Amino acid sequence: MQLDHIETFLDIMESRNFNRTADRLGVTQSTVSTRIRNLEQAIGSELFLRGRAGAEPTAAGRRFEAYARAMVSTWSQARHDVRAFNRFEGTLRVAAQVGMTRSILPGWVETLFQVLPKSSIHVESDYSPQMISDLSLGNLDIAVVYAPRYLPEISYDPLMVEEYVMVSTAARVLSEVNPDTYIRPGYTVVLEKAHAEALPQLAIGRLSMGSETLAEAMLRRTGGTCYMRSDDARRYTAERPSFVVEGAPALQQPVHTAILAHRKHEPIIRRGIRALHLAVMSMEN
């Protein structure tokens, strides 16, 4: 099985047409057909149904897509890591929950440069399910997640608890919050549950958002009330006319580190985790 066969398969999954894929890849239509035929023989299943309308993936083709993307990603990461050894002593790939780009991530990266001066570092932000999947596939070394998904190969440890507070452009106290301009925090399952229990009168609002960054952007644009991380709330209320709402309960979101269990004692992993804890301590001081 060759990589160009996999890449051709993935292109057809997008184009749904052998001729269009041939044009996009700069090869002949017969080359595309041969690659797919060889791939189907190697897998032992038909991947596409060919017809005048184009190429539609079979159930086996749809099933194979995730594996194909993982293979291409793994190959790309392998090339990067091997090349990095020409210049660096190691490579560390880290990721943190979307939304942490203004909180923990910058400090962590800064500290990683200090504790791993001869290593290359790749940084991402993503959501917990994708980071856990990347860890499991070996495409990530350390993740900071909100929602652990317990798999035997992954080890989780508590890192910190993030506090969210209610911020409003109009209301100073909870009783003044207007439900029509309130943005319900759907950022995580934990926050949604805590919010429903603590504020049942605001649990069925007109608008909810799954991103605190988007909620803040809407607050800037239209005004209203939403929940923010405590540090973001301090920054926002210092920059714009707004208030931390008195009487509104703080909501808490546990944060966890995630690594592959069998790599727990590797020096580069231990240093990466140490840098993370130093970054958290620096935030708290």
From TrEMBL:
Keyword terms of this UniProt record: DNA-binding, Transcription, Transcription regulation
Keyword Transcription: yes
Family: Belongs to the LysR transcriptional regulatory family.
Name the UniProt record assigns to this protein: HTH lysR-type domain-containing protein
Segments traversing the membrane: none
InterPro entries: LysR_HTH_N (IPR000847), LysR_subst-bd (IPR005119), WH-like_DNA-bd_sf (IPR036388), WH_DNA-bd_sf (IPR036390)
Domain HTH lysR-type: 1-58
CDD domains according to UniProt: PBP2_LTTR_substrate
Species the sequence originates in: Mesorhizobium ventifaucium
Membrane keyword on record: no
PANTHER family: HTH-TYPE TRANSCRIPTIONAL REGULATOR (PTHR30126), TRANSCRIPTIONAL REGULATOR-RELATED (PTHR30126:SF21)
